[in-house]
Amino acid sequence: MTASATLPTIRVPIALGERSYDIHIGSGLLDDPASWAGLPASADALIVSNTTVAPLYADRLAAQLAGRHRRVLQLALPDGEAYKDAATLNLIYDRLLGAGCDRKTVLYALGGGVVGDMAGFAAACYMRGVPFVQVPTTLLAQVDSSVGGKTAINHPLGKNMIGAFYQPARVVCDLDVLDTLPAREFSAGLAEVIKYGPIADPVFLDWIDANLDALVARDKPALAHAVQRSCEIKAGVVGQDEREGGLRAILNFGHTFGHAIETGLGYGAWLHGEAVGCGMVLAAELSARLGLADAALVSRLERLCRRAGLPVVAPAMPAERWLSLMRVDKKAEGGEIRFVVIDGPGRAAVRPAPDALVAEAIAAHSAA
Q1: CATH 1.20.1090.10 occupies which residues in the chain?
Q2: What is residue 1's predicted lDDT score, i.e. its pLDDT?
């Protein structure tokens, strides 16, 4: 892995009026007092992490926060998508209420997308809203889930169907924490990096194609650019459509298929990024069958996902099972499934598609 001491800290602004904040990207940020300067002050803070990440980084974060808060509490949740549920969410409320935390308490979400979503949702609800800070420790969380204020838990009938839009006070992306990320988790994060190219920036897609080997090797300058450009694209979209009234839905490219995979197989069988990677191939195939994209894009995304270590063959499920799962999707309207499709280079749209065509797209890349 490339040495990181000379990497400058990058700041990407999220422009949302009084809810605006910055994303900090760089190396050594966890131990840099500047990362935490200017955040809301309070008597109490709660670091919400999980049983995998907490032993690695929670005490280091607590040491930095000790001068800002009278008490720095910690909570390690069970690790995994299977625990992104109401029962686990209540563990956060139990800790806050049990410690007598007030409405100014600051929550710090130290972990991947599951921790960030649950800590953010808890912050949105506890005493009707307390500040929180995202400290993402996975690539997927750094380039996607920690940015933009989407918070949620899963339900057995649908992923991320219970939640709130609630913006953090800051996002701190320390690239050094990615050094301890397991290879499978790292590959899952690359899916969300790849996503931004076809939906918003053909030049970035070319850059990913040329630099994917460096990204897989966790080269720090390459990672810094990938995280920065991903966050810039997402910041631009969120700044125009914070609550997903229209444009923001394009960020869900591959997710309608991906969420069906996650729900259909059981949460945790496939990682979220793995399901999204395969889902992007299916969405590109559907785009081609709708006459919106060419076969070359399908092949390119399939090749990129394979190089990134992502699955590209959809699991075997009956077509009706796929369709029923995808009807429980936040983009669905009146029971009609709406898909993010590619509508030209660097351009995405949200459209319905005939069930028969969707089934054909799945069958073209299915294990069945």
Answers
A1: 195-363
A2: 43
